[in-house]
Amino acid sequence: MTRNSAASKDILLLNEKIREADTIAISGHISPDGDCIGSCLGLCTYIKDQYPDKQVDIYLEPIADKFLFLKYANHIMQEKKKEQNYDLYFSLDCSEASRLGPYEKYFNEAAYTICIDHHFTNDGFGNLQFICPDASSTCEVLYDLFDYELITKECATSLYLGIVHDTGVFKHSNTTRKVMEAAGALIEKGVSTSHIIDDTFYKKTYIQNQILGRALMESILLMDGRMIFSVLTKKHLDIYGVDSSDLDGIIDQLRITEGVEVALLLYEKEVGQYKASLRSNGKVDVSRITRELGGGGHILAAGCTVEGRARDIINHIAAQVEYQLKEAGAL
């Protein structure tokens, strides 16, 4: 459904399920980004503000230190502290249940499940669904579902952060009038916009700048400059002492190379296993490529995890990019 068709009866049911549940859990996708983290913490804050005595657990893979200032960030867990099946479980920012990674099992075991997402590739899962592909972010979807009067400064901060990250600080094509109005309303709650934008989006450590420089220096152009790629091996990450959270922004820097239609960043998670991040400037639907490889995402930004040699992965993705560019008459 679109956000405009989110029936009021479904929102009433959402609030009813929250009110009735004694134990609630929230998870987002593997390798959580700003929107995933912001939506999970924003929902947790919204629930706890109204029902401080409820058990609300958040399961995510470890997040970057720059996000630890958000309320309830210190409540994030990687595994259950005790064996239990939850009364209510939320999946946020996941195009399919498998994107929950190790927490898909927890989700499936819950008495009632709710999926809230903005990926157009989401075909729907869970007992109740709020899937709004015309929204910029899952945080924007939550903003529409929440009672504005009940959104506190802390909740607004998490939602604003997610919107900032998924719109690239309001510069991506998913930035609409509705997005700006939502952001403005959240700012009125007292959100520190400069802190969120500077410290969580733009600011880089010295080591992050070094790995960015390496990725840019070793990048390679293909198809007469229409595609660019860079590969970071596990050895590279170990040498610089970085992890995946330190790679934020590299793919977008590759994307804005003059003449490039598609950018690809491969980084090795384990020996022989690579995370592929793709960005498009409009002529290629990169989600078509990642879905075929078991991943997901959006038309202009998508990703997947692939087993194999970097050279073979690049050749396979490049062939798909070339096919779409020819289809669009751009090659």
Description:
- The protein is of the alpha/beta class.
- The chain is 39% helix and 19% strand.
- The chain has helices at 8-20, 34-50, 104-109, 138-145, 153-166, 177-187, 193-202, 206-217, 234-240, 250-255, 286-292, 310-327, and strands at 23-28, 55-59, 76-77, 88-92, 112-117, 128-131, 220-222, 227-232, 262-270, 273-280, 296-297, 301-307.
- A hairpin with a 3-residue loop joins strand 11 (296-297) and strand 12.
- Helix 4 runs antiparallel to helix 5 (153-166), helix 5 runs antiparallel to helix 6 and helix 5 (153-166) crosses helix 7 (193-202).
- The longest helix is centred in the last third of the chain and has 18 residues, at 310-327.
How is the topology of this model organized?
Elements: H1 8-20, E1 23-28, H2 34-50, E2 55-59, E3 76-77, E4 88-92, H3 104-109, E5 112-117, E6 128-131, H4 138-145, H5 153-166, H6 177-187, H7 193-202, H8 206-217, E7 220-222, E8 227-232, H9 234-240, H10 250-255, E9 262-270, E10 273-280, H11 286-292, E11 296-297, E12 301-307, H12 310-327
Parallel strand pairs: 1-2, 1-4, 2-3, 4-5, 5-6, 8-9
Antiparallel strand pairs: 7-8, 9-10, 10-12, 11-12
